[in-house]
Amino acid sequence: MVKKIKNICVFCSASDFLEEKYYEDAKELGFLIGQNGYNIVYGGSTLGMMWACASEVKANGGKVYGVMPQKLVEMGCRTDNCDEFYLAEGMRDRKAKMDEISDAVIVMAGGFGTLEEFAEMFVQKQLGYIKKPIVVLNTNGYYDKLLEFFNQIVNEKFANEFARKNIIYVAKTPQEAVDYINNYIEPERVPSKHEIYSR
Ligand code: AMP
Known about the structure:
Blueprint: E1 7-11, H1 20-35, E2 39-42, H2 48-59, E3 64-69, H3 70-74, E4 84-88, H4 91-100, E5 104-107, H5 112-126, E6 134-137, H6 144-155, H7 161-166, E7 169-171, H8 174-182, H9 193-197
Parallel strand pairs: 1-2, 1-5, 2-3, 3-4, 5-6, 6-7
The structure holds adenosine monophosphate (AMP).
């Protein structure tokens, strides 16, 4: 089934101390999100790759939806940069809100915050709670070792082949990530018990 995708959730680093190539990809992704008529759902801050991406969405006609937990607001994170801002109590309901208002997910390079967000979305799709596309944008091969580890997870039967083949799409460039979302066909059905649990 082709589902109209409007809001793309982007998970990525809040760090301001990375090599330039990460910000360049984040900006390019933001440019493409805006130019292709999408909006961005993201963590809401003006930091790092997050804002590099979101500000380009804004500059290219897309809307910026930020979702931030109370604690980060109290720490002084800016929120007036967003077209719509959602305040969450904590990290858990923040992720739930980001999931609720987005139709696709792109995971860019990031630290533990990004990894946590990615893992939750991965398992949501593995268990059939969501059917939306999840793209890993592997800038500079940042996730090569994690993807290798995913192979180990499957090879040692901690998950089955279905998880490796059907849950994420790995893109090398922002263009490839957006092309995948542009052409995404939602699976007709959710994974069967056999596909989730047989090894
Ligand atoms: P990290 O990968 O550890 O830099 O964390 C980035 C991810 O966690 C983002 O996708 C955000 O959703 C969330 N996050 C972490 N730090 C912040 C922050 N200062 N402001 C807003 N969101 C943040």
